[in-house]
Amino acid sequence: MPKRSTKGVRSQKTAHISLQAHDYYTDCSRAGMLYAALIRSPAASGIITNIAIPQMPDGYFLFTARDIPGRNTVHTQNADTPVFCADRVSYFGEPIGIVAGPDESEVYELTSEIEVTFDSSTLETALESVAEKYTHPVIKLPGTEQKPDSDQILEITKAMNLDPPAPGTIPTKPQIPQLSENAGAITAQRIVKTGLFSGDAQNTYESVFKSADFDIAETWIQDTEQPSWAETNGAFCFMENGIMNIFTPTQWPDYLRKAVSVSLNLDDDKIFIRETNSSGHDANGIWRNATLAIQTAVAAYLTGKPVKLTLSRDEHQKFMKSGVPAKIHYRTAVMKDGSITAIKADITIDVGACNPFAQEILDRLVIAVCNIYDIPNICITAKAVTSTNPPTSIFPEMIDSQAFFAAENHLQLIAQETNILPADIRLKNICSNQKNTKMPFIFHTEKVENVLQNAISMSDFNRKYTTFRIDAKQHRNSEDTFFALPIRGIGLACTFDGSGYFGNDIFSGSQKISITLESDNTVTIHSLVPSPAISEIWIKTVAAILKLPPSSVKITPDMEINDILPLPDNIYSNISIMTQLLSQCSLEIIKKREKTKLPITVKKGLAPSLKKQWNKSDFSGIPFHTTSFGAAVVEIELDPYTYKERIKGIWLAVDCGRILSLPAIENTLRLSIQQELSQLVVDETIVCDDVHISFIHSEDNPGQIGEIVHNTVPAAFSSALSQALSARICRLPCTAETIYSQGDTV
Amino acid sequence: MQKTEHTFFFAKTISELFYQLKAVSGLQIVGGCTRIDAVPDKAISIRGIPDLAVITKHERYLDCGPGVVLSDILALGHTRVPDIFLDAVQSVANPIVRNIATIGGNICAPGIKLSLYASLLALDTHLELRSPLDTLYVPLSNFTGVPQGFILSNIRIPLNDWDISVFRRLGPEHKITDTSASFAFLADNDKSMITNIKLAFAGPVTFRSLELENRLIGTHLPLSPKDISLLVDTAGKQFDKSAEEINYNPILRRQFLNLTRYSLEQLT
Amino acid sequence: MKIPVTLNNAKIVLEAEPGDKLLNVLRRLNLLSVKCGCNEGRCGACTVLLDGKPVPSCIIPVALTRDSAITTLEYFSKSEDYQDIINGFKKAGINMCGYCNAGKVFSAWHILNTSMKPDRRIIYEEVSHLSPCCTNTDILINGILYAFDFRVHRMGVQKNAKN
């Protein structure tokens, strides 16, 4: 059983039964509740010397860093961030205060009337960055319009309590802002060099590439963002009987409780966290949510009233953005036969003002950037830099995808340059013998060829690729502009989806589970209740092994109401690891049943020897507990008249080990594909005529498939689009302008 | 940013509507109000006026009140509504928005012309504008807005059969941006001769390509690639003339020319 | 402003600014099945029935609903039609997340009410705009088709019972 920090306060049960249970914090309310809104810095940098709202009405409150009872700090891993910015602004929109009051629209009105005074020595920077962005903090009210630049700047000077510039001196375009002292600082790094690159000599690099038949370089950027219409982030807090109650979509309640305790100067047992639904992929409930919860809790603590803070959709999209922007420059040395002799990859990620998980994100990108290919000489330099963008976080569902986007698109480019079929290029370079490989990262690639061949034959990839290539060439060379047929392209991508990463103890440290075969022959799985799909898989797995009906198996958290698990929630529902542990528990029960009386409880955890397969100091070995593989083919068709894209088909082949529930896995993949199609082109959802999914039969341990679609489809799509347009699409999402400007030359 | 105070008025009959419009200065009529960010400060809803939400089918035209919601038009089906107009209605937003959005609101929306405009323009739609004392019939091609003291009381859509009907909505599906527009093309031919043709474009730039239409009527089919290129050039010039002093996204011009070419190819 | 409406079959007078979104007004009345999603009338999270038609309450000023009948999911969930839909969804293996329920249920109901025999293409056109937060469109279509079967069966049984 995972270690719990148990400080139950049984008397609190009464208080919580009286409050109507809601799945979403936005549905919570209490008599006398105040609505809250954040005051945000209008500049990306500068030193604030004063914040004031003129004429605060009765019953309305403004709190800033000075009002925090405890420390103005949120401590996450090795990073400290302020609850409210006290003086030096780190990023545009950084919260500098919170306004609370009984009328929601009045609260928003008040936030737009703030006066923020900046230190004059940092004025130029602040002024420039404001002119570039917004006149007011980001609370969008209906009926407002964007004003021309000169008016904006006048408003800024008024908001900053400055004398307006003399007439005729207002710049019509903002100048490039100076970076603050922390902007561009490297916050995490990773360098991996093998083969000839280990020597670090510059002439070695060049000689490797010079000796190759093809030296192919390109920069790839994937910054897709899925439209999200789920509940925006925020919190609902109130004090009752000396206990601070926090209802919020946190995914790490233990961390949140500790953080609140520090900021409010309250003991842990005076804080009750109620996790509400984390809806949507961008829930951002690992650490960013904690800051919002603390801000709300401060307001509730100081006013003595219930307070609800709900971010507007605009705020949620700007300041709680999912993913981390990454730019990957890839350079490969390739021989005529298609074998890749060297890769030099430079990865830069912008973590915004702060990201406590920057190292892990970087490490995962480094591991993914060479994918499953066996390259004798690799040089990967990766760095995470800060900027004046809002802080970012870690999203397990999309952590490697940008590296795969670069790798798979680059493979497609290599295929084009070398005139070798994309599938053949991949098969040529896949690691076939792990014993002889020089790659630092080891994956069990035995089934990869199967997966690839499956996707290729399902989609008739080779024939279509060749045909479309010839068509594209004819379009380019033809002087006849009398065209009628749609333009087509087809792309291929294959990637892995690793789960149970051994490189970070927080996310793979303490996975344990226990089950009890009760005296009445029912089974209790002691765990947080996961999603219905995973619950069904766990119940069926245990029932099948113990030869009991599924109805006799139940999952019970087995926790006191105030108990909190120490790790993020998604650790406890990791399907691959936890399902294996459950199987092991069940098999152990079968052994013990013959000798021991009921009830029998068995606990299992991740064996330490497994974690040792990954060498943290060398950054090498087997990085994941389980790895699934997927290959996707995307065929697109462009309307030559409107340049509108249409996907003729997506073929997905997956090897994820033993399949525990075919309907659940199919639904997950189809849903992922549907979600993916709404983020490949800005403001558009691409229609897809047909989706075909095939699974490679396997009795291996089940692996996760949550990232497979996000890892493969964008790369396959951009490759297909590149072929259709006879141009290189290096960046997603693309826009109508991108397609238009490329398509116009077809 | 000041909170905008809205005032709403209501009318149950057309006479009441006229009365309110006269009594309250600056009052604007609203239909489904689907563009909530553009609700006027003083608005009067026609939702409660049944006379303005009637659809009547005659032998050669369809009369739609401005308060008719788009889903009701779709419910009539292809047998009673011109295909091109039905395609245009289908392209608006999504089914739940179409349950509240009105045809009058779509036509009268300020700024970029919305999705129904091109098809109605191509169909030679006429608008009935009514005041307490007068009734005007204005072709949509001459429509520049509802004059003071008048209301849009009816939209008359001719019902003709067309051999070729092309409609395309341009730009994002669920938003109106600077790349949003609609294209409509209708043509009839008889014994390899074009007997009737309509070409319309509506968005940031809105026009009927009358010069092209006049050139094509009476032309024998098939059109050669060279003819099509020349005709597309003519259409381009018409576009440029209508777009003088208008800021538009160049994609739209390209798409218009491409669609014109496509439509002319359909004739061939 | 006072706005008389029939809300969930009860005549009441709403007191709100005329420009207030219907979504916000309903949530203030504790009708929480109406959720704030895209704010553009697209995702369906805020869907209610207005005079029997599903509409997005996030883009409708409350003043426009004067003298209209508004039905939210709280009230609709007591009906037999709702049960048919839920049974159909259950059979298709749909587990709604709770945020998108109004859009999916009311869109399903609208299809069942207006189509004699809905086919996949018609259903797809009606539901493809809904937020794909927890259910993909194919499975949603399956659910609606099952719901149709349940409804036909129930109405057949009721008709026979009357006879």
CATH C-level class of the largest domain in chain C? Mainly Alpha
pLDDT averaged residue by residue of chain A: 82
Question: Globular, elongated, flat, extended or rod-shaped: what is the shape of chain C?
Answer: globular
Q: Main β-sheet of chain A: number of strands, strand sense, barrel status?
A: 7 strands, mixed
- Number of structurally distinct domains of chain C: 2
Count of discrete alpha- or pi-helical segments spanning 4 or more residues of chain C: 6
Question: What is the secondary structure topology, with strand pairs?
Answer:
The complex is a heterotrimer of chains A (746), B (268) and C (163).
Chain A (H helix, E strand, L loop, with lengths): L11 H7 L15 E7 L5 E7 L8 E3 L10 E3 L2 E3 L6 E2 L5 E7 L2 H8 L3 E4 L4 H10 L16 H11 L26 E8 L8 H9 L3 E9 L11 E7 L2 E6 L4 H12 L6 E5 L12 H16 L3 E4 L2 H7 L6 E9 L5 E11 L7 H12 L7 E9 L15 H18 L3 H8 L18 H12 L1 H17 L9 E15 L3 H4 L3 E6 L5 E4 L5 H15 L6 E4 L12 H4 L2 H19 L6 E6 L2 H4 L2 E2 L4 E2 L2 E15 L6 E11 L6 H15 L10 E2 L2 E5 L12 H18 L5 E2 L3 H8 L3
Parallel strand pairs in A: 1-14, 10-29, 12-13, 16-17, 20-21, 26-27, 26-28
Antiparallel strand pairs in A: 1-7, 2-6, 2-8, 3-7, 4-5, 9-17, 10-15, 11-12, 11-14, 15-16, 18-25, 19-20, 19-22, 23-24, 25-26
Helix pairs in contact in A: 6-7, 9-10, 10-11, 10-20, 15-17, 19-20
Chain B lengths: L6 E4 L3 H10 L4 E3 L11 E4 L9 E3 L3 E4 L5 H7 L6 H8 L4 H4 L4 H6 L8 H6 L3 E5 L4 E5 L11 E8 L5 E7 L10 E10 L2 E10 L4 E2 L1 H7 L8 H18 L7 H18 L1
Parallel strand pairs in B: 1-3, 2-3
Antiparallel strand pairs in B: 4-5, 5-8, 6-7, 6-8, 9-10, 10-11, 11-12
Helix pairs in contact in B: 8-9
Chain C lengths: L1 E6 L2 E6 L6 H7 L18 E4 L2 E4 L12 E3 L1 H4 L3 H12 L9 H14 L5 H8 L9 H26 L1
Parallel strand pairs in C: 1-5
Antiparallel strand pairs in C: 1-2, 3-4, 3-5
Helix pairs in contact in C: 3-6, 4-5, 4-6, 5-6
